[in-house]
Amino acid sequence: MDAKYFLPVAFAVTLSHNRHAKRFSQENLAKQAGISRAQIGKLENASANPSVETMLKLSKALSLNLERFGSQLQANYDNVCTVLDGRFAETGANALHLYTKLNNDPLRKI
């Protein structure tokens, strides 16, 4: 499987982890970032790719500079590639589910 499909999964992990760390609901984050709650849901379910503008809005709303957000994203991307590469031909939400299960990631429990 082409690793480019893992980017939405890595972004979903990064976004969800940071949102939960700030104790924001999806609706609170959406209001802070000036985007829709539905878009937050799509991003956290790995069914959408963010634009650069959306990434900037989210990092600002989460009080993270873009460099820190980007380094977290890169670390999660590397981990997702390691866990999923060559094992499954899944994308989006299916890949996120498999990653979370295989990695024993407490993402959904935060």
Describe the model:
The chain has helices spanning 7-21, 26-33, 37-44, 52-61, 66-84, 92-102. The N and C termini lie far apart (29 Å). Helix 1 packs across helix 5, helix 2 (26-33) packs across helix 3 (37-44) and helix 2 crosses helix 4. It has one domain (3-104): 434 Repressor (Amino-terminal Domain), CATH 1.10.260.40. It has 110 residues and is mostly helical. The protein is globular. The chain is built from 6 helices and no strands.
* SSE string, helices as H and strands as E: HHHHHH
User: Could you state the CATH homologous superfamily?
Assistant: lambda repressor-like DNA-binding domains
> In whole angstroms, how far apart are the ends?
29 Å
Shape category: globular
- Count the helices. How many? 6
What is the domain tally? 1
Number of β-strand runs = 0
Q: Look up the CATH topology.
A: 434 Repressor (Amino-terminal Domain)
CATH class: Mainly Alpha
Question: Which regions are unreliable across 5 or more consecutive residues at pLDDT < 50?
Answer: none
Rg on CA atoms, Å: 13 Å
Mean pLDDT: 82
The profile of the biggest β sheet is: none
Estimated helix fraction? 55-70%
Strand content: under 5%
- Class computed from helices, strands and strand pairing: mainly alpha
CATH architectural group: Orthogonal Bundle
